[in-house]
Write a structure and sequence with these properties.
By secondary structure, the chain is an all-alpha fold. It has a single domain, classed as Ribonucleotide Reductase, subunit A. The chain contains ten helices and no strands. The radius of gyration is 20 Å and the shape is globular. The termini are far apart. The mean pLDDT is 92.
Length: 296
């Protein structure tokens, strides 16, 4: 009889960090020299987001726009998307600094240095696009509420936020890097971002699972319930930020707040949010962080 071979043990965060550090060195890029910024862009004359990704797609406000209006909206929606990603990466960078030597793990620390370098370059890249072509970065809307954490809960919460920012954004990056119909500068920025984020997501998923398995079994039931309630709310709030009435006003849409409320309630937009979130929500359920799919 042939002996049954046990499946290989899953890669640890230490082993993964070593592999990802090599990849980051191999794929090193220069934010100041590797992007060919056009002098100007044609707002209203070309697409900047894949139309199906534009936040009002499929709603009455979208139907009321001509093609120029839709292309103009795609530009300001992209500015909002890049602004959201930039703001999402600011606390990520701060948190990574705190994580850097916290575990006394040389391999993880080395990769966090690469992670931090790449996230800083992303912020420069997104800020440059928004400032150069829109003249601004849209303001952040989230408030930070002080909280007392159980042991390990703050680290788990931090890496949950990391994954939400990165996985939602990466869906958009992948779609747009493949879309030859959108402006080349938009396609290039999305391509660059995805190339780094693919590594960040793998790392974040592995480390979060390890942190969850280490700490969650020791928490009181109310801590688990509280974290799951917070996670569902944070994911929904993150999606709400994709619907920015200020961007709609800049795009020339009348009744921008009504357009936002209609999009948040529209079934086509709900289905889009569920579809984009599916892999991330499945991960949270598979690891036990969530027990059921949250309403989005």
């Amino acid at each position: 009889m042939n002996a049954i071979t046990a499946p290989p043990a899953p890669e640890t965060s230490t082993q993964l960090s070593t592999r990802l550090s090599r990849a980051s060195v191999k794929k090193l890029w220069n934010v100041y020299g590797d992007i060919a910024w056009p002098e100007s862009v044609d707002i209203g004359g070309e697409w900047f987001m894949t139309p199906e990704l534009v936040s009002l797609y499929g709603t009455p406000a979208w139907d009321a726009l001509d093609e120029t209006g839709r292309k103009r909206l795609s530009f300001y929606d992209l500015v909002n998307f890049f602004s959201l990603t930039l703001h999402g990466e600011r606390p990520l960078v701060q948190g990574l600094c705190n994580q850097m030597y916290a575990r006394q793990n040389a391999e993880v620390t080395e990769y966090i240095h690469h992670f931090l370098d790449e996230e800083n370059k992303h912020m420069v890249m997104f800020g440059e696009f928004c400032s150069r072509y829109a003249g601004k970065v849209y303001a952040q809307k989230k408030l930070v509420v002080p909280k007392t954490y159980a042991k390990g809960e703050e680290d788990v919460t931090f890496f949950i936020k990391v994954l939400i920012v990165e996985e939602l954004g990466d869906y958009y990056n992948v779609m747009m890097q493949r879309d030859a119909s959108i402006a080349p500068i938009s396609r290039e920025i999305n391509r660059i971002h995805h190339a780094d984020e693919a590594r960040h997501i793998i790392f974040g998923r592995r480390l979060l699972a390890e942190l969850w398995n280490e700490h969650a079994p020791k928490w009181q039931p109310e801590t688990l319930t509280g974290l799951r309630t917070w996670l569902a709310g944070y994911l929904k709030a993150s999606w709400n930020d994709f619907y920015n009435p200020t961007a709609y006003k800049d795009a020339g849409i009348a009744d921008a707040y009504d357009a936002r409320q209609a999009a948040l309630a529209a079934e086509c937009c709900r289905e889009h949010r569920r579809r984009v979130s599916r892999k991330l929500v499945d991960y949270f359920i598979d690891t036990g962080i969530l027990e059921a799919e949250p309403a989005l």
